[in-house]
Predict the 3D structure of the following.
Amino acid sequence: MQTIEALDVKGRRVLVRADLNVPLDGDVITDDGRIRASVPTISALASRGARVIVCAHLGRPKGKVAPQFSLAPVAARLGELLGHPVAFASDVVGDSARATVEGLGDGEVALLENLRFEPGEESKDDALRGAFADELAALAELYVGDGFGAVHRKHASVYDVPKRLPHAAGGLVVAEVEVLKKLTEDPARPYVVVLGGAKVSDKLGVIANLLGKVDRLIVGGGMAYTFLKAQGHEVGKSLLQEDQLEQVSGFIAEADKRGVELVLPVDILAATTFAEDAPHDVVEATAIPADREGLDIGPKTRELFASKLADAATVFWNGPMGVFEFEAFSGGTRAVAEALVASGAFTVVGGGDSAAAVRKLGLPEDGFSHISTGGGASLEYLEGKTLPGLAALED
Ligand code: ADP
Ligand code: MG
């Protein structure tokens, strides 16, 4: 992969695909981690005299203009972080975008409106996607792929535009790939993976692949209940993916066969409802009452998981241990995060919610070796899949 240092950018229009998909509450950005992670590449290009055109997506507007998904608040925050105002185009490839690009001087930065307002961006139809990529590419002379969180998507701005312009990988993509390579090629051992979060089905592929690589797999969060159920325990009203039970049973058997230590919760915070202030009790993981739902791992599990992380040399963590958005159910996630910091291992946190949890809980970001900006992208890399956005930058 060619890096930005190899591009002659002075006075030239450079389209930077960034990942600025931040959580919003109304028009207030609640976690600006992805914007901050995008700043170094943008400012490096600007300081070399490039006319920087940033493009990105926000949320899932599904090909239609939807004001609640406007990138306008992001343009303002990006400007603050760069220390220079960022010109904002009110469309993606229309009159406003063209005029905004036209008005850019050397070293200036513009942001286009949400790419996903355009149906071509995510289209599965190559011709539709290609036509939109043509319009996007026409705005610039060079392309920089730096939106690591989106490199697993075969989208116009990620996959098709770099086929149309001379291109390079931005510093964020280079750094992310370097870390993931370390995890896949020759990780220091013991290599421990901690998985949690809500979406079991999203994470099955990575489990299948990791069982051949890791020494220990710790499962918490909403995922754990499908594992407990597969072992024959009732899980009450807890998150459960009935249709994944068979596959999860297969993983449990496979872990045993391969000598991978599988660590599951032994106690649970079982709540009466899914709410911030829900009454709850600590129960054994094997005895969750029928009318309760598990919203966090219990105190014995926190100690158990910490002890299973203490001797690790490499740790990859994806997915919160509980509903950390609710203060009362954030303790398990905090305990695991603190155990990572204390371990002295090479520690990688992947996943939008996991990274947001680290920051929300006020843990020191520099206590981790790497906090990835990409959840799906890092998981798919670890699965061994070819990521379209990386493949396009290789050619
Ligand atoms: P990431 O974005 O880090 O990959 P996910 O998106 O898979 O993580 O999962 C994050 C979500 O999982 C959080 O919103 C959290 O509230 C939820 N979650 C974690 N544990 C539970 C649980 N026991 N029950 C319901 N939801 C949970
Ligand atoms: Mg998530």
